[in-house]
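Minutes, project check-in

Agenda point 3 was the complex the collaborators sent over. CS summarized: two entities, 926 residues total, and the question is how they sit relative to each other. Sequences were read into the notes so everyone works from the same version.
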Amino acid sequence: MEAKTSGLSRLGSAVSGFFAVIARFFSEFGTAMAKGDLFVKLSLLWWGAGYFRRRQYVKAILMTLLEIAVIVFTLNFAMAYVPKFGTLGTVQAEQVFNMQTMQTEWNDYDNSFMILLFSLFSFVIWFAAAVVCMRNVVNVYELQMQAQRGKHINTFVEDLREYLDKKFHITLLSLPVLGIVVFTLIPMLLLILVAFTNYDQQHMPPTNLFGWVGFSNFVTLFGGGITTTFGYAFVRILGWTIIWSFFATLTTYIGGILMSLLLNSKLTRGTKIWRTMLVVTIAVPQFVSLLLMRNFFANSGIVNTICANIGLTGFLRDIGLISTSYIPFMTAPGWVHVMIILINIWIGIPYQMLIATGVLMNLPTDQIESAKIDGANPFQVFKSITMPYMLQVTGPALITDFVKNFNNFNVIYLLTQNVFVTTNQFMANSQAKETDLLVTWLFTLTQDYYNYKMASVIGIMVFIVCAVFTLVGFNFMISGDKEGTYQ
Amino acid sequence: MKKLIALLLAAVMVLSLAACGGSGKTAETQAPAADANAPAAPAASGGPISLTLWGAEEDQALLAELVEKFKAQYPDQTFDIQIGVESESTAKDTVLTDVEAAADVFAFANDQLNDLVAAGALLALDGDIAQVLPAYAGKTIDDVKAANGEGSVAAASKDGKLYAFPMGGGNNYFLYYDSTKITAEQAQSWDGLLAAAEAAGSKVGMTYASGWYNASFFLGAGFITDMNPDGTTVMDWNGTSADGFTGMDVVKGMAAIAAHPGFLAIADGDISNQIASKAVCAVVSGTWDAGAAETAFGEGYAATKLPTFTCADKQVQMSCYSGFKLMGVNAYSKNSGWAVLLAEFLTNEASQTARFASRQLAPTNLKAAADEAVTSNVAIAASAAQDVYGSVQNVGGKFWDPTATFGQMIANGDLKADDDAAIQTALDTLVEGVTAPVE
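CS then shared the predicted structure for the full assembly.
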């Protein structure tokens, strides 16, 4: 309980710290605007003005060029899309065939998706420009203060040199952060926006337009409005996703640690051979091993043949566990859920075993030895020294594993696609099946049915669930005071 | 520290702006290119006409050959025709990902026609564009329609407009059987088949868990599937058919077959394996399994139309969805006139004959189909015999999962023949799911 409150309070302080940065940014800007001289104030309109006044001509020219670039971008590019952002386009595509040129001629039609994408892009640019502009005023005001105090004002070369020295972190980090903005932030914002539109099979650009529909997709998801069984399927799929992630993470984690303890034990012979055999499952690509597994456990697969021959199938039928002439490993709900988790143990343990082996090698042997001298048995050593140490070191990896399993597309899709057919009509009416994770359902909805809007809604839900687990989990696991518990 | 973060942010913004300045320029250069797509700017006559063509992997060599012949037919015009590989069964997915970037001419299976038309990806061929055929190819669009089988033209049309050229047929299913175990007489009905299979210690296989296959029972009993203009599916399987059968009669007939010890329900996509493993002595499949069946059944290899099944104490002939391979023209094709000519050329009588020779695709062209080599092919003959009872598949995306589940329930024996209420509820739920609005 105490750990929870401290975790939450840390989360709280992170949030408040974030807002403090924003508040500070605006207060600095306010001060600069209020107390700055004419050129500082003019910098709001002409970005180079302040630098010009302080004779930083290169910077003045660069900022002016940047400002011109933003204006050109706005006039030539953004204005073609942003004004249509409210409707996402109104002009339907129309065509006429021209016999002379043997070509189809089109009107100047709107493409809703392009309008959405490029408007968003323009917003990001404008946001950045606004921040640069305001930050620029603050910088120029600082220059003014330096000048008033009679301090040395950097030349352009000196400024540049700072990026290799005092501001080296900026030089290092700008490229990765730019990558995150372009490849993660913009697509993510786009996905969020699509959740509020009717972008689906009936509204596919460029031929058809799509538009804003507000929260109606979210209403659909939670069972309101439409007659289909979306809400019914969503709740069940979310439940199985969480159960799966929990067991898939826990079983491979514990199994991996036990396996590496077994291999590290002085009593085990031929350690290297055993370890190599386990690691082979990593070397074989998952889609090969999983498809083989799928065939082994098929209704007419090799495992069923063996089970029938040794009489297991008959026994299970006699005690009423199955009603078919085969064991429905991959074709009946319940059976398939257990099988998926078991098969995942088989392919997941080697990874965890390798990680655990690495950690166990660094286990403080002096503690274990002194514990043994004090008369602790192996289980007590495992419980009070090995496990706490393991948890402390691999805790963050455990959280990542949970989130990874939450979105574990490969295992579920490869094992159940075209094999498991649901007999629950309500699930089928929502294009779902009992074994689907949110992410595989998402795939079916987008890939097979072009239902981009509902896929976005589910995507947002997956994001929220994963974010909550990660935030809470990390705050639990990575707390400084945990270190004391095993020492 | 916070100041550092603020500085960092600012620096990043500057950098991203610099990067975006660049993209602003590329957008500018893109703009005129997009304009060239639309009005004005007639292609400089004599300049090469560039076209992209997507066809199946197994069609590649033939397409290359045919494209050369096409070029030779118009010596006054230079062409730059690129041929790409795109499976006929997945063409829709690739085309709809970005219609404007997709190939000018592409081959696809007719079940994708509805989605492609709904997305506006296919050029309607009997509009103004039809003028190019008499002007350059010496035939009219009506000649093309008349030259191909009625079913194939219907499969390539929607709302009375032709959207693609029929390229091949035989994309339906029928019965392969081992004539050393089953007589031709027995192969006429499920009762005969199942009894013979049981006597021979083997099985009759069919895929129940797929709407494509299990619809054959319902269609045979006079039920229908159709599609509304808004993309939703029409289905009447929970009512009474034009032939006077109820959905419940059909389900009971299917359940009786599924419960027979001589029956093997095969998972969708697993049919070839089951044939190869010799688990069956008769199986419902299509021309694509001809090789596997011939190998497995050896001397006894035979094929015929689908059998009849017992429905409300009567023998009812099973129907099927008739499938066709079509060649369509992208609605966003720049050189649409030449694209139409190319598509027509690749599906004319000579091309279809060549395609049958290279990959055994049954011709839809009536003259090509009448050829001795075609009619003597066991699988294609059976496919043609079944096609008489077939109907064009006209369903929306919501058809598949509910029908697959329904078939699986019958195959599993979840629906008991004496529990009328449960069967009717299941039928109602099925129809509700299939006909649900496209949200």
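Noted in discussion: Chain A has 21 helices and two strands.
Follow-up: revisit at the next meeting once the mutant set is ready.
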